[in-house]
């Protein structure tokens, strides 16, 4: 973890780490999905895929709160995220949530509309599809059983398209060469929370412009979930744009450089 980029926000009830990069006046809050390893371990590499933002935005990449316990809900994650933003002085921001991060971002936009200027939801869902319950449920079971190698293999195979996984498997495996029992226990807590995402009937409460990005070969939250999410937002009158990357997997945000540019263009309009 980079000491120069990663900071800790402290509230009365929890601590949460975040990485801060960029020098722009506009804040962009990025909420990642569940991860076997702490994503902030790789904060030094964030500036490369997000380089298009760095002059105009200051980017805040958040981890979940420290010491989360079983039963920690998506609604609680949203409440804690907003509390953390308040402590560091962010009253309103663009928010980009990926996978579970997109679920949390939806709850933020629903419960705290005054906090969100524009919203981007990547490979996310408003209600768990059967495949999501199967895939993430299996990850949770493997993590609870401390079967690290099986968890890593399943995580890679389901998150990425076959072409991408084949090309970068060695590098991806190296990232997860050592996975501790504590990391797997933590992963299982957050994985279980995904089962209970339920924002569909409240999506009309989102008032800000929203961009929904999905992947045609998403084997985690599914492409169908992204389509349903976008269609519901539009039906509720929410100003919504959407795009599906047909040949990519769940982690399309890591597969294509075009992804970040599409987000940037949306935020700048």
Short synopsis of the structure:
This protein has 269 residues and is α/β, with parallel strands linked by helices.
Number of separate helices? 9
Low-pLDDT windows of residues: none
CATH arch. level architecture:
3-Layer(aba) Sandwich
The CATH topology name reads Rossmann fold
CATH H-level homologous superfamily name = Alpha/Beta hydrolase fold, catalytic domain
Report the sheet with the most strands, covering strand number, pairing sense and barrel closure. 8 strands, mixed
Oligomer: single chain
Shape summary: globular
Q: Count every beta strand, where a strand is a DSSP E run of 2 or more residues.
A: 8
Structural Rg: 17 Å
Instruction: Kindly report how far apart the N and C termini lie.
Output: 34 Å
Mean pLDDT: 96
Number of domains: 1
Q: What's the layout of helices and strands?
A:
Elements: E1 6-10, E2 15-22, E3 26-31, E4 57-65, H1 74-87, E5 93-98, H2 100-111, E6 116-122, H3 130-144, H4 148-159, H5 162-175, H6 181-193, E7 210-215, H7 223-235, E8 240-245, H8 252-255, H9 258-268
Parallel strand pairs: 3-4, 3-5, 5-6, 6-7, 7-8
Antiparallel strand pairs: 1-2, 2-4
Helix pairs in contact: 1-2, 3-4, 3-6, 4-5
């Amino acid at each position: 973890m980079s000491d120069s980029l990663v900071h800790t926000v402290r509230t009365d009830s929890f601590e949460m780490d975040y990485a801060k990069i960029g020098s722009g006046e506009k804040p962009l809050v990025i909420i990642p999905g569940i991860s076997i390893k702490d994503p902030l371990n790789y904060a030094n590499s964030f500036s490369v895929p997000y380089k298009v933002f760095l002059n105009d935005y200051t980017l805040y990449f958040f981890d979940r709160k420290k010491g989360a316990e079983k039963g920690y809900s998506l609604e609680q994650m949203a409440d804690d995220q907003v509390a953390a933003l308040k402590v560091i002085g962010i009253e309103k921001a663009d928010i980009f949530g990926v996978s579970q991060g997109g679920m949390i971002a939806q709850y933020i936009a629903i419960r705290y509309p005054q906090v969100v200027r524009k919203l981007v939801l990547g490979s996310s869902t408003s209600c768990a599809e059967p495949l999501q319950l199967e895939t993430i449920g299996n990850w949770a079971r493997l993590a609870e059983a401390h079967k690290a190698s099986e968890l890593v293999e399943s995580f890679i195979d389901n998150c990425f398209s076959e072409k991408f996984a084949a090309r970068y498997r060695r590098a991806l495996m190296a990232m997860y060469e050592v996975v501790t029992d504590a990391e797997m226990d933590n992963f299982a807590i957050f994985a279980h929370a995904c089962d209970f995402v339920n924002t569909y009937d409240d999506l009309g409460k989102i008032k800000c412009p929203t961009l929904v990005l999905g992947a045609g070969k998403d084997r985690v939250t599914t492409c169908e979930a992204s389509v349903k999410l976008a269609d519901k937002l539009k039906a509720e009158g929410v100003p919504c744009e959407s795009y599906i990357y047909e040949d990519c997997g769940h982690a399309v945000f890591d597969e294509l450089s075009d992804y970040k540019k599409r987000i940037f263009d949306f935020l700048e309009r």
